[in-house]
Amino acid sequence: MSSQDIPEETPSSEQDHAHGAVAVKDPFADPGLPAHRPRVQDIDERAARRSERTVALLFTVSMLSTVAFIASYVIFPVDKIVYIWPFGHVSALNFALGITLGLALFCIGAGAVHWARTLMSDEERVDERHPIEAPPEVKAKVMADFAAGAEESGFGRRKLIRNTLFGALAMVPLSGVVLLRDLGPLPEDKLRHTLWAKGKQLINMNTNEPLRPEDVSVGSLTFAMPEGLSEHDHSFQTEIAKAALMIVRIQPEDIKDKRELEWSHEGIVAFSKICTHVGCPISLYEQQTHHVLCPCHQSTFDLSDGARVIFGPAGHPLPQLRIGVNDEGFLEALSDFDEPVGPAFWERG
After folding, report:
1. pLDDT tens track for 253-308
2. pLDDT per residue over 300-340, tens digit each?
3. Lowest mean pLDDT: which of 164-178, 210-224, 260-274?
4. Which residues lie within the region annotated Disordered (predicted)?
5. In the chain, what are the domains?
6. Which pLDDT score is estimated for 349?
7. Which of 104, 192, 247, 318 could staple 271 via S-S, CB 3.0–4.6 A?
C-alpha cells in the first residue's frame, strides 16, 4: 500500500469541531441549595403545639433536677455509701449530685435542640460575602434579619417555651452557688457555745468522777470536763477543745474582781483552759500569785482578777464559768460561758 493510500489523521480537536463539541461537566460546580421541604410542624399547628409541649417539658425537668440537686445536699450525708448496680458501692451524695446536675444540663440542651429542629425556621439562605466593615445598610439588614429570626423562632408567640426556658436558665446557676457549700462547714454559732449548760456536773479529767468542793484544795489546779462527755466519743476532741476547764481555789478575800467572786463557790473559780491567743491549753499555775501561764507564747493571766491578761500576746481575759453546788453536793455549772472561748474570731460581737 502506497503512502497515498493511507488517510491522514485529523487532530482530535479538529475531529471534535467537525463532529460537534462534547460538553464536559465541571466536577466542582456549585450544585445549589436543595428545594425546601416543609416539616410537619410547619403545616400542622397541632404538631407544632406537641413540639412546644415537649420542649417545655424538657425545660421543666431541668428545673426539677436543679431542685433535686440542691435537696441532695440536705438529704444525703457525706459519708453515706450505697450499692447501685452496675456501679457498685458509691457515695450516695456524689451519685445524686452527678445525676441531677447532668440531667438538668442535658434537658436544657435537648430542649434547645428540639426547639431549633422542629419549631424554628429551617430554610437555608445564601448570604454573599461582603467586606469586613459594616456600612449602615448592612447594620440595618442585620437588625432586620435578627427581628425576622426572632419572629420565626416564635419566641414572642410561644410564651410557654419562653417562660420555661427562662426558669431553667435562671435555676441552673443555683447549682454553682450550692457548690460553695463544699468550701467548709458553716460556722453558724458553734464557736459561741460549748457543752456546758445549767446543771452539768464538773467531771475530774483524771479520775472521771464528779467533783465536790472538798476535792479542790487551796493552791491546787484541777482540770474538768462537762458531764456526759467521754474520751471515746467521736466528737470528743472537737468538744473538749471548747469546753476544757481549769479549776483553782483561792481565798475569797484574795479575789479582786467582784463578778469573779459572785460566779465562784467558796473561792473555787472555773476558767476556760483555752488560751485566748491561738488556743493552746494552759497548764502552768503559780499558786502564790494566782497567775497561769500559756506554755506556747507565754501569755499570762491573773486568776484572782478576772483572768485578765498581764503579759503576752493574748488579746482578752479567759472566759469564766459560773458554778455552784447541786443537791448531792457536787460542783455543777450554772450556765454556759457568757462569751466565746479561745482566740478571737470575726463573728465575735
Report:
1. 999 999 999 999 999 999 999 999 989 999 899 989 999 999 999 999 999 999 99
2. 999 999 999 999 999 889 999 999 999 999 999 999 998 88
3. 164-178
4. 1-40
5. 40-125+133-183 (no CATH), 191-333 (2.102.10.10)
6. 47
7. 318
Q: 161 with 115: CB under 8 angstroms? A: yes
Q: Is the dihedral of CA 165, 167, 172, 177 positive or negative?
A: positive
- What spatial distance separates the first Cα and last Cα of the chain, rounded to whole Å? 127
Q: How far is CA 324 from the centre of its chain?
A: 44
Write down the H helix ranges in the chain: 12-19, 40-43, 45-75, 92-118, 136-153, 159-179, 236-243, 258-262
- What is the three-class DSSP state of 210? strand
Nearest to residue 290, comparing CAs of 202, 204, 223, 220? 220
Whole-angstrom distance, CA of residue 90 vs CA of residue 84 = 7
Task: Please check the confidence at residue 7 and state whether its pLDDT lies above 60.
Answer: no
Helix crossing, 92-118 with 159-179: angle to 10°?
A: 150
